[in-house]
């Protein structure tokens, strides 16, 4: 089928979203967020998020269809995030999507949300070249993937051994007193700070550990180092140079992610690096990846900010890939998988 039309539905965490993609063209994109309802708890409360999904599901899907000037009858397939994510949240989106598929007699694909984060780059940059490398940086994942054949064959080249980049930012942000989610606050402050003000460890880049884990990441060391430094300064009664702390943390994370990604590209002979995940909205990471890409002759494809954070377009785009590749739809009773592995693209 050429230029399939897919309705994508997302409900893994605190965004309820629906979008319609035709081929590589985004026809509508609706996102409702319950983020503000969680801010005062310092993190996403699954029960609150699930209820918000139940309320926003029908309005989001209706608006996505209306904005694209379509009805359900016009779509060729429905795609929905089946994992990884919060079980209660996934259940709302998947149940809703199954009901729509059954009512309109459409094929349904339960897709991997994280793979959606890299799939979405196709809306801006076109199809993946074969045998390409991808860097996933989200709240829960920091991984390098070898995408041999999208969406049929994806392997994990490296992954974080402890915290994900977004998690590390969120934890330091809490220490600095920023509200949840802290990542964007660190980003903002880092823009005014000195990235070399504080010495932070470059986990898994040097020595034996670096050689043993050329493509793996570790961010808990930098988190601890920054935390100790801040506590030391506080104990000594000195004022914390927040901008410098943020800039040093951001530079360390971005540099490490960039170096490992470039080394991976070289190893796998890829002159393209696909980037995706909520953390790819980070300006220090974006700048560093583009700079490294230019230096190494690698075409770095980072989604526009709006498509970095969770959305339905990423789900619909991956759905289009599955339809185009002739992959069989998911069984009508497919389950959710809150720990869906990165090598599994659909249920
Ligand atoms: O992909 P995502 O929306 O959720 C998951 O699927 O995990 O990623 C959310 C993560 C959070 O840790 C958030 O703090 C981080 O992305 N984030 C940022 C920025 N925007 C979002 N981190 C740093 N700088 C940003 N501008
Ligand atoms: Zn996400």
UniProtKB/TrEMBL annotation:
Underlying gene: tsaD
Amino acids binding substrate: 136-140, 170, 183, 187, 282
Biological role: Required for the formation of a threonylcarbamoyl group on adenosine at position 37 (t(6)A37) in tRNAs that read codons beginning with adenine. Is involved in the transfer of the threonylcarbamoyl moiety of threonylcarbamoyl-AMP (TC-AMP) to the N6 group of A37, together with TsaE and TsaB. TsaD likely plays a direct catalytic role in this reaction.
Source organism per UniProt: Bifidobacterium reuteri DSM 23975
Any single GO BP term: tRNA threonylcarbamoyladenosine modification
Gene Ontology terms for molecular function: iron ion binding; peptidase activity; tRNA N(6)-L-threonylcarbamoyladenine synthase activity
The family this protein is said to belong to: Belongs to the KAE1 / TsaD family.
GO cellular component: cytoplasm
Keyword Transferase set for record: yes
Annotated SUPFAM superfamilies: Actin-like ATPase domain
Protein name: tRNA N6-adenosine threonylcarbamoyltransferase
Catalytic activity: L-threonylcarbamoyladenylate + adenosine(37) in tRNA = N(6)-L-threonylcarbamoyladenosine(37) in tRNA + AMP + H(+)
Binding site for Fe cation: 113, 117, 310
Co-factor binding details: Binds 1 Fe(2+) ion per subunit.
Keywords of the record: Acyltransferase, Cytoplasm, Hydrolase, Iron, Metal-binding, Protease, Transferase, tRNA processing
Pfam families to which the protein is assigned, alphabetical: TsaD (PF00814)
Keyword Metal-binding set for record: yes
Location of the Gcp-like domain: 25-316
Requisite cofactors: Fe(2+)
EC number, as in UniProt: 2.3.1.234
Localization per record: Cytoplasm
């Amino acid at each position: 089928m050429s230029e399939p039309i897919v309705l994508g539905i997302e409900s893994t965490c605190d965004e309820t979203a629906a979008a319609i993609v035709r081929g590589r063209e985004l026809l509508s994109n609706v996102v409702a967020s319950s983020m503000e309802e969680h801010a005062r708890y310092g993190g996403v409360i699954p029960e609150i998020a699930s209820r918000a999904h139940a309320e926003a599901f029908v309005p989001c899907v209706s608006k996505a269809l209306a904005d694209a000037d379509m009805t359900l009858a016009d779509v060729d397939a429905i795609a929905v995030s089946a994992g990884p994510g919060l079980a209660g949240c996934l259940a709302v989106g998947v149940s809703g999507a199954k009901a729509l598929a059954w009512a309109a007699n459409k094929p349904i694909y339960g897709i991997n949300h994280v793979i959606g984060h890299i799939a979405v780059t196709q809306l801006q940059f076109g199809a993946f070249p074969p045998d390409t490398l991808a860097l996933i940086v989200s709240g829960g994942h920091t991984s390098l993937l070898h995408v041999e054949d999208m969406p049929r064959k994806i392997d994990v080249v490296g992954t974080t051994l402890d915290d994900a980049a977004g998690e590390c930012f969120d934890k330091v942000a809490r220490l600095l007193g920023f509200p949840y989610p802290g990542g964007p606050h660190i980003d903002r402050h880092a823009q005014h700070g000195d990235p070399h003000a504080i010495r932070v460890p470059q986990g898994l880049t040097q020595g034996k550990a670096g050689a043993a884990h050329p493509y793996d990441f570790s961010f808990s060391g930098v988190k601890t180092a920054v935390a100790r430094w801040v506590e030391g300064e506080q104990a000594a009664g000195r004022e914390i140079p927040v901008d410098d702390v943020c800039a040093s943390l951001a530079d360390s994370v971005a540099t490490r992610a960039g170096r490992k990604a470039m080394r991976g590209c070289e190893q796998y002979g890829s002159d393209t690096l696909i980037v995706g995940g909520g953390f790819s909205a980070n300006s220090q990471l974006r700048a560093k990846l583009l700079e490294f890409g230019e230096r190494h002759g690698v075409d770095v494809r980072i989604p526009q900010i709006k498509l970095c954070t969770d959305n339905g377009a990423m789900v619909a785009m991956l759905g289009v890939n599955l339809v185009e590749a002739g992959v069989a739809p998911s069984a009508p009773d497919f389950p959710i998988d809150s720990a869906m592995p990165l090598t599994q693209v659909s249920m």
